[in-house]
Amino acid sequence: MKQICIPVPSLQNHQTVDAEVTVNGVSRHMNYRLESFDWAQEGLTTPHKIQRLRELIQGYDPGWELVQIGVPDRNLIPVMFRRSSPALS
Fold first, then answer.
1. H or E stretch including 50?
2. Per DSSP, which regions of the chain are E strands?
3. Are the C-beta atoms of 31 and 21 separated by less than 8 Å?
4. What is the largest distance, in Å, between two alpha-carbon atoms of the chain?
5. Which residues contact 63 (CB under 8 A, 6 or more apart)?
6. Of 28, 34, 77, 86, which shows the fewest CB atoms inside 10 Å?
7. Domain presence at residue 4
8. Residue 25's domain spans which residues?
9. Does 78 fall in a domain?
10. Can you give the pLDDT at residue 43?
């Protein structure tokens, strides 16, 4: 899938962005969701944190697909998911 970057306002956790994209007259409604996962668990090494993040992503709602993993801050790592509906005409 080709990608288009569109600036959007900053999102808080569990918020969604709705966008409608039209290509050659066919419209498609897209939903994006931002989740922030705890990255600051004490006593975990970086490989263990990565494994935990992998498990959280794999166990996430299957109606949403992973789009992007953001840069972690001290406590949280942002993860963007996408869900798309069938094409609209």
1. helix 46-58
2. 16-23, 26-38, 65-69, 76-84
3. no
4. 53
5. 83
6. 86
7. no
8. 12-37+65-89
9. yes
10. 78
In a domain? residue 86: yes
Which amino acid would we find at residue 76? Answer: L
Which tens digits make up the pLDDT trace of 60-86?
888 888 988 988 877 788 888 888 654
Backbone angles phi, psi at 50, to 5 degrees: -65, -45
- Tokens linked to 73: 């801050």
Cβ atoms 32, 16 nearer than 8 A: yes
Total of domains in the chain: 1
CA-to-CA separations, 63 to 20, 31, 52, 66, 82, in angstroms, rounded: 18, 11, 20, 10, 9
- 3-27 tens-digit pLDDT: 777 776 666 666 777 778 888 898 8
